[in-house]
Amino acid sequence: MIKVAILGAGGLGRGMAQMLEHRKGFQLVGIADTEGYAYCDTGLNFKTLQSVAHVHLYPEAGVKTTPKQAIMQLLQAHGSQLDAIFMALPNLPVTFYKDITQQIATETNFKGVIVDALKRTQAVEMLLTINKKLAQEDILYITGAGATPGFLTTIAAVAAQSFVEVKHINIHFGVGVSNWEQYRATIREDFLHMPGFTPAMVEAMTDADIEAELDKRNGLLELVDMEHADDIILELTGLCHRDQITVGGLVDARNAKKPVATTVTIEGVTVAGQTTKHQFIVGNETTMVDNVCGPACGFMASGVQLYNLGLRGLKTSAEVMPRFSAEGIHKQVAQSL
Ligand code: NAD
Fold first, then answer.
1. What was the pLDDT predicted at 58?
2. 8 Å CB contact between 160 and 230
3. HSE-CB for 237 with a 13 A CA cutoff
4. What residue owns the CA closest to ligand 1's atom 31?
């Protein structure tokens, strides 16, 4: 079994706990939020997790920690017992993932795979600067492994293979959530991409401010030309320049139904010189948990397989294909060595 810890227990953290129960070969053993953590070597379950507001209240496995020290305290106590970590934390300020990862690498004895669902280009650029440090500390970090970047980026990377030149890649997502409080960081961070908002303003907004901004827009957030790491991730694969990649979407923060279908459109030139497009449409019934946590889970499985084969440092999702099941990974690698 791949022993997993989830950092963050909001919408996506809990979504990952649910997803792991459906994918073979994974076992959730640890989870942290701002107040504390829960750890159990024989496994934590989603149903019990859903019955507690904070994870330190998880029966028998919960530990209340110093506020905001839960991640370090979980990993200092149990880091060496884990194979993989899923980061489901807010990314505000944008330096947060780089800072916390550096701390994990240097102040805990975790050696294994980290997977995130980061969105912003700047955040991925910052992580790239600690590539060497991660490798030295025996960590393989796969960034941009959620829906976008992640699921949709890798679809674009594969679809572009039938072209000799890529002209343009457009990712347009539709997201519906019945209540923004289920995904506080996700909705808050969407304001970063709205005209008239700066990161400092968004960070300072109270929940009531967010609610008021949603009221003004009837819960709908239209996002255009976002600073999204699909651009740097695809550029790094050599597909095209980041300026040829556009990302936008429509989010309904008050309705679970998607306001618009999610599409990935790849325009390119064929070997015969024809310009044409591929388009991929995501099933409307899939939710954020399906499209973020499912792929992140797949990247985690591939990450552990590659880790066992000796890969270390920082990789992007487009450099790694997600693997559906983690079953038998440790055994397979041992046999191939
Ligand atoms: P959320 O607000 O629902 O949950 C965040 C969790 O992190 C909470 O449990 C909170 O207690 C915990 N947390 C915050 N600071 C902490 C700290 N210092 N130590 C320990 N725990 C801490 O967030 P969410 O909506 O689940 O989103 C998580 C992240 O996923 C966001 O950054 C969001 O942008 C990203 N996201 C990515 C994609 C994608 O496709 N790539 C899609 C949606 C969301």
1. 98
2. no
3. 23
4. 90
Nearest 10 degrees: Cα torsion 254, 219, 17, 205: -130
Q: Detail the DSSP E strand segments found in 56-116.
A: 62-64, 84-87, 113-116
40, amino acid identity: C
Rounded to two decimals, the pTM is 0.97
Atom of ligand 1 nearest to the CA of 14: 26
**Residue 241 appears among annotated catalytic residues:** no
Cβ 9 vs Cβ 336: under 8 Å: no
Q: What is the pLDDT of residues 35-65, one digit of tens each?
A: 999 999 999 999 999 999 999 999 999 999 9
Q: Could you tell me if the CB of 33 is within 6 A of ligand 1?
A: yes
What would the pLDDT profile of 163-197 be if each residue is shown by its tens digit?
999 999 999 999 999 999 999 999 999 999 999 99
Is the CB of residue 89 below 6 angstroms from any atom belonging to ligand 1?
A: yes
Exactly one of 56, 119, 228, 258 is catalytic; which is it?
A: 119
Which of the residues 137, 189, 213, 267 is marked catalytic?
Answer: 189
Ligand 1 midpoint to CA 168 (Å) = 30
pLDDT at 201: 96
Rounded Cα–Cα distance for residues 93 and 177 (Å): 24
